[in-house]
Design a protein that fits this description.
Blueprint (H helix, E strand, L loop, with lengths): L3 E5 L5 H9 L6 H4 L3 H11 L1 E7 L2 E10 L5 E8 L8 H11 L6 E3 L4 H6 L3 E3 L2 E3 L5
Parallel strand pairs: 4-5
Antiparallel strand pairs: 1-2, 2-3, 3-4, 5-7, 6-7
């Protein structure tokens, strides 16, 4: 049986979090480089962020912002390659929705086919998340 835990990110997670991102290659380079890391560390601390752990291994995250009751915007979503295809990204999105009852959750996407596959409706250049879609 696989143990999947989704929990909120905290300051003590910073080192493990950036180690995970460093392993993700060029797509995440701007977040982990000398100029980007301090800025992204601040962004993580000021965001609603969730970590995904599978059997204790950090293997994904979601970073969101609450727009003062006008919606929650997911800015970043990552599930590491070896863990993809197991509905873990959907689980992260469902956790965001569960923690924002009554609010619309939007995704700021650069991977549109993934969100289309999940059944989320396009709203202009973003997607509206539908839990359980």
């Amino acid at each position: 049986m696989v143990d999947v835990v989704i929990r909120r990110y905290g300051p003590a997670d910073e080192q493990a979090f950036f180690a995970m991102l460093e392993g993700e290659g060029d797509d995440w380079r701007e977040y982990v480089g000398p100029a980007g890391r301090p800025a992204y560390a601040r962004a993580m601390r000021s965001s609603i962020a969730y970590l995904l752990l599978v059997d204790g291994e950090l293997c994904g995250y979601a970073r969101c912002r609450d727009d003062d009751g006008f919606g929650v915007y997911v800015h970043d979503l990552l599930v590491r390659g070896p863990h993809r295809g197991r509905h873990l990204g959907r689980a992260l999105m469902e956790r965001v929705c569960a923690d924002a009852p009554g609010q619309t959750v939007y995704v700021m996407s650069d991977v549109d086919p993934y969100y289309e596959k999940l059944g989320y409706a396009r709203a202009g250049s973003i997607f509206v998340v539908t839990p359980g879609a």
